[in-house]
Amino acid sequence: MIIVLLSAGPPPGSEGYQTLRDTLSAISRYILLPSLGVALVSGLFSMAVHTPFMEMRWVWIKALMGILMFKGILTVDGVSADIGAMATRRLAGDGLPDRLLSETLFHEWALLWVMLVLCVANVVLGVWRPLFRRLRHRRTSMQA
């Protein structure tokens, strides 16, 4: 959703841009962070309760990717706040260099794409994990 809003671009004027930044911050703070936190905590809790999960590599990979996604969303939220403040000052005529704003925007987009790739990888790993288990089981039974 954040990528769609950023792609659409802000409405003209500094108030429109600030509204877009406030919307992005609210989405991140009130939807992304809590839902990701619940998913991360419930996943770690399921690992602790169901001990066979601790022996499976894909579970540890998913846990690591979940922690990276949580850290990335916190970083995106911080970068978005910085960009919003810089752009608002720029639009107000504070004379911030365009290069600084464009570099920060580039980093925001890069972080968003990394988050998207991590999300897709996490879903793929969660959906295809039974296939990995079956393939490994089939290989060990063929060797015996």
TrEMBL record:
Bilayer-crossing regions: 26-47, 59-76, 110-132
Keywords from the named record: Membrane, Transmembrane, Transmembrane helix
Transmembrane keyword on record: yes
Protein's UniProt name: Uncharacterized protein
The organism of origin for this protein: Roseibium aquae
